[in-house]
Amino acid sequence: AVTPVNRLCIVKAVTPVNRFCIVKAVIFCFQVLYREMIWSKRNVDVVDIPIAIRDGDDTRALDLGIPVLLTGLLTQPWTASDLSFALSDHPLQHILQSRDQNRFKFAVDHDKLAPMTFDEFTHVGTQNHNSQNYLYVYGEPIPPSLCSRIPRIPCLIDKALTSTLLWVAFSSVCSPLHYDLVDGVLLQLSGRKRFFLFPPSAVQDAQIHPKGNRFDRQSAIEDIHCPPSPFRDIPAIQGVIEPGQALYIPYGWLHQIEADCGLSISISYRWNSYEATIRGAALSLRGLRASSVPVDAQRKILAEMLTELPLPIRELLVDRLCSNLSVDWL
């Protein structure tokens, strides 16, 4: 039994140093438990990697060109009312509807709804919350009224943004595994999103649909949790974006993004760090083709023109540019 005397001895035995160690151990246990709650278990033999975390005020957070999660960008999550006020009566043009699954692919195989205000979208979205009818504001260019209200991200100040897009859902929706030919930052204003990232070197094993296919740049792998070999041997960088956090997705990185249940509001910022170099290479390729230069020689010349790009991205772009199809994809 723990008598008052024994209890006093136990308290005395816990020195400040021991107490500090105990507190650290408790914090560690909570961190492990939290990670277990948000970590998505995959049936693979490799160990996935947690995303690196940087302060949102760090202007050089993207300098290494690797995925990072920026934090501290919001004081509190946005609500549907906040977004409604910011959008005012702006008609949303990019609303997709899927009646059978929550996976939204780039090809237009979903119903595109007529333009509606955000309040109208909210009404329809909440009415369908418990049905198999999924709605998604899918890459809506943000109007000036919203642009002036979203948080400023210091590391994007010097980026020549090509687009700033809005993504909204009221149910669990998913953008399946794919890669983009741009850099991107995804800012979460409300709700949570789980992400999986794979480097450009994984593209060759990701069963990407060929160039010219309507699912170009998308993977044929439907289940990221139990992928086929050899892709299952590639570890993912994974984690969860909380409100007030932003995920940096570097150029050419494969990614799958899944919204949690409930309201999810995200803003994506995109830019092309290699636009001038790639455009010059594409123009040169047209000349090489016009001169009937052999494909092997075309590949070698293009690789030399793209030497300033990281090797995996260089190989990815050479493969795309030297396909037998048009190079007018830029």
Automatic annotation (TrEMBL):
Gene3D superfamilies per UniProt: Jelly Rolls
InterPro entries to which the protein is assigned, alphabetical: Cupin_8 (IPR041667), JmjC_dom (IPR003347), RmlC-like_jellyroll (IPR014710)
Domain JmjC residues, every copy: 129-288
Highest taxon listed in the record's lineage: Eukaryota
Pfam families assigned to the protein according to its UniProt record, in alphabetical order: Cupin_8
PANTHER family named in the record: HYPOXIA-INDUCIBLE FACTOR 1 ALPHA INHIBITOR-RELATED, HYPOXIA-INDUCIBLE FACTOR 1-ALPHA INHIBITOR
Protein name in the entry: JmjC domain-containing protein
Organism listed in the record: Spongospora subterranea
